[in-house]
Amino acid sequence: MTGIITKVLIVDDEEEFAEILARQLAASGFQVQTCSSAAVAIEKAQAESFDLVLTDVLMPGMSGLDMISELTRLGIMCPVIVMTAYGSVDVAIQAMSRGAYDYITKPFRNDEVVLTIRKLEERESLQRRVHTLEEKLRGEHVVGDLIGTSPRMQDVFTLVKKVSQFRSTVLIMGESGTGKELVARAVHDQSARASGPFVAVNCAAIPSHLLESELFGHVRGAFTDAYSDRKGVFEEADGGTLFLDEMGELPLNLQVKLLRALQDGEIRRVGSAKSVRVDVRLLAATTKNLEAEVKGGRFREDLFYRLNVVQIRLPPLRERLSDIPSLVHHFIEKTNRRLGTAIEGIDKDAMNALLAYDWPGNVRELENAIERAGVLAESAIITRQSLSEPISRSRRREAEADPEDLSLKKAARILEERYIRAALLKTGGNRTRAAHLLEISHRALLYKIRDYNIDIPHAS
């Protein structure tokens, strides 16, 4: 006996039958109680917890069907096995549609009910193991709303967890749609400031003449339409985190004021002569190469170094293809919850197309693609026909990205070879430095170079 099910409640108005069944179950090691009505059973279930309820369907007063519904309404999620007379199987099926686990027909053999309970125990044991594994995988492969099993994303997760513990300014780099705001939220949520506000502002979405007021606030009469005092986002984020997206779009005159606010911990509302102290942790993001912007005179060097204390680079989706299956699963569940769709999965051909596509819009584009496919799908499974034309026509990478071959071993080998080639290219063929970048031994690298038949590039 697994020990998952120990306490059993028998509900049957035939008291003699209930007592006989109770003795049989007790002989198999179960702790058993009996009662002759559904109403009493509900009272017992509210007073103490049971691992299983065995109930008749047709009883005076409340039926077994209504009892199942009432237990559910009360939040008592105890498994129920229905006992029904031969010939009334349709009633038992109704009970299962209300949440019963299984049914057995009377009269049944002595060992039949025990075997049914054992089957339930196996299911419960499997569900617990799955839940434990999912929690373990979630801890390893999910940070906040970020999802990824690829080495690149694992590096991002490690950085997020580390920088969350400190107040340092973080610069988040990455293409549009890679999830820069999700990184910022994850840093905030895991920090000591998690109970404080998280305020996000897209600098590119606000007209330049309104940006200063948006950031620092204004006083009444500071400019036309300033009819009252107004806080800026720095004051709104006091005690928490301020996330400034598209920092590369900030005008030079505001870059000076932002630098002063970061250095002094004070801001001044537009039109005011008074400074206001603020306690804000700044996280910034950009799609631009700020180093190039500095060289071009479009971004202040001192502000760049003030922002670039810790840098987190988010890889584009085309460089983390192994994450696509788990992202697709996540977005299917999200779409089902939000739109009420009932998508159960995606077929191999459609997954092939997703893995072959270049994803210029990155994770955001993938999410939109799955939502569209979920709405247009003709069945519970997303097919290639449900995808937009540019994605459905994608076939370039299918030779290496066939889901039929996408075992973890296959995916790992594909990524491993790519990373080794990239490391050798970056180091000009220096195998010692490449091994250091890859965090493997020199001997292991030599073995893998032979295994993958990689030509070593020469330094130019």
3D structure, described in words:
The protein has 460 residues and is an alpha/beta fold. The chain has four domains: 7-134, Response regulator (Rossmann fold), CATH 3.40.50.2300; 148-315, Rossmann fold, CATH 3.40.50; 318-405, Helicase, Ruva Protein, domain 3; 408-452, Arc Repressor Mutant, subunit A, CATH 1.10.10. The protein has 19 helices and 16 strands.
Please render the helix and strand layout as text.
Elements (H helix, E strand, L loop, with lengths): L6 E5 L3 H13 L3 E5 L2 H10 L4 E5 L7 H10 L6 E6 L3 H9 L4 E5 L3 H32 E2 L2 E2 L3 H13 L6 E4 L6 H10 L8 E5 L5 H9 L16 H4 L4 E5 L6 H13 L1 E2 L8 E2 L3 E6 L3 H6 L5 H7 L2 E4 L10 H16 L5 E2 L1 H9 L5 H15 L4 E2 L6 H4 L15 H19 L4 H8 L3 H11 L8
Helix pairs in contact: 2-3, 13-15, 17-18, 18-19
Distance between the termini: 69 Å
Shape: extended
Number of helices, counting only DSSP H or I runs of 4 residues or more: 19
Structural class: alpha/beta
Largest sheet: 5 strands, parallel
**CATH topology (level 3) name of the largest domain:** Rossmann fold
In total, the number of strands is 16
CATH architecture of the largest domain: 3-Layer(aba) Sandwich
Residue runs with pLDDT of under 50 for 5 or more positions: 396-401
Beta-strand residue fraction: 5-15%
Global Rg: 31 Å
Helix percentage: 40-55%
What keywords describe this structure?
Rossmann fold; Helicase, Ruva Protein, domain 3; 16 strands; 47% helix; extended
Question: What would a concise description of this structure say?
Answer:
With 460 residues, the protein is an alpha/beta fold.
